[in-house]
Amino acid sequence: MNTVKVVVKNVPDYGASREKNDLGYLTFDLKTDLSNLFNWNVKQLFLYLTAEYITPANELNQVVLWDKIILRGENALLDFKNMNIKYYFWDDGNGLKGHNNVTLTLSWNIIPNAGLLPNIQAIGQHSFKFPTEYTQTRV
Amino acid sequence: MLDSVFDDVKRMNKRQFIYQVLSFGMIVSSALMIWKGLMVVTGSESPIVVVLSGSMEPAFHRGDLLFLTNYPEEPVRVGEIVVFKVEGRDIPIVHRVLKLHEKNNGTVKFLTKGDNNSVDDRGLYAQGQLWLTKKDVVGRARGFLPYVGMVTIYMNEYPKFKFAVLACLAVYVLVHRE
């Protein structure tokens, strides 16, 4: 099986955009071995890291923070340290400041040569808190 | 060869000819029935789509075939590949859900992005539209078959090819006798 470890290192956060929304920022460690997912009918894995959380405004928020395409034959043994997120972590409103339970999960979408397109969630997840104050520094 | 074909037609009497026309009509209508049946089973207004652009490469290339479902009870989630329509564009777009916000009353809004595009799809949406909702979705990609859709792309790009294929099929069905 694949074990996934996700650790959040640093989480400053500030509001911006035309309407002020909370913007989160974080870096993460990720270590996983997905090589046993590949067989003759797996052309590509689409790997994505999702932040999932609940706010007063929305009962479910899902934001993809990072993704990666792994083609068959490429290295599927991943060990990232202190990775930056790839996409902006905008909340729909101002629900991130002081949020104490944001869950990070790793999932993948298998693209076959021909056949079904399943989306699978990895075992293991990581929860973290946002600071209670907006940061003034640039990230 | 052609002579013998016309010979065949000439030798048929009226009754036989009408019979062949009817069986041709039956083939056309059963094809339509299969399509309509798929629409009912999958809940999608267009259960099979052909990928027309390279924005999802290397997963999907131009000419690949996708099978869609669109069950209302199945929620849209991040990472899924959805096919959606944008106001003012005829051609539906096949892209992946990047972020999603669901309210307590069940209304969902989400943002999509093509795997091969460097930015999200807000530039593709209608003027002023920031999010997609459920009613924009044609279906969710469930199955994948490569290259097969190239035939329909050729047919659309070269109408002569389409008419040639259709004419061949029609002649074959009308003339063919078991």
Automatic annotation (TrEMBL), chain A:
Key words of the record? Endoplasmic reticulum, Membrane, Signal-anchor, Transmembrane, Transmembrane helix
Q: Which InterPro entries match?
A: SPC3
As for membrane topology, the entry says: Single-pass type II membrane protein
- Where in or outside the cell is it found? Endoplasmic reticulum membrane
* Signal sequence range: none
Q: What is its main location?
A: endoplasmic reticulum
Question: Per the UniProt entry, what is one GO biological process?
Answer: protein targeting to ER
Indicate yes or no for the key word Translocase: no
Matching Pfam families, A to Z? SPC22
From which domain of life does this come?
Eukaryota
Looking at the UniProt record for this protein, which Gene Ontology cellular component terms does it annotate, in alphabetical order?
A: signal peptidase complex
What PANTHER family does the record point to? MICROSOMAL SIGNAL PEPTIDASE 23 KD SUBUNIT SPC22/23 (PTHR12804), SIGNAL PEPTIDASE COMPLEX SUBUNIT 3 (PTHR12804:SF0)
Q: Which family does it belong to?
A: Belongs to the SPCS3 family.
What is the role of this chain? Essential component of the signal peptidase complex (SPC) which catalyzes the cleavage of N-terminal signal sequences from nascent proteins as they are translocated into the lumen of the endoplasmic reticulum. Essential for the SPC catalytic activity, possibly by stabilizing and positioning the active center of the complex close to the lumenal surface.
Output this protein's name: Signal peptidase complex subunit 3
UniProtKB/TrEMBL annotation, chain B:
Q: Which SUPFAM superfamilies match?
A: LexA/Signal peptidase (SSF51306)
Membrane topology listed for this record: Single-pass type II membrane protein
Q: Which family does it belong to?
A: Belongs to the peptidase S26B family.
Q: What is this protein called?
A: Signal peptidase complex catalytic subunit SEC11
Cellular localisation: Endoplasmic reticulum membrane
Q: What is its EC number?
A: 3.4.21.89
Q: Name one GO molecular function term.
A: serine-type endopeptidase activity
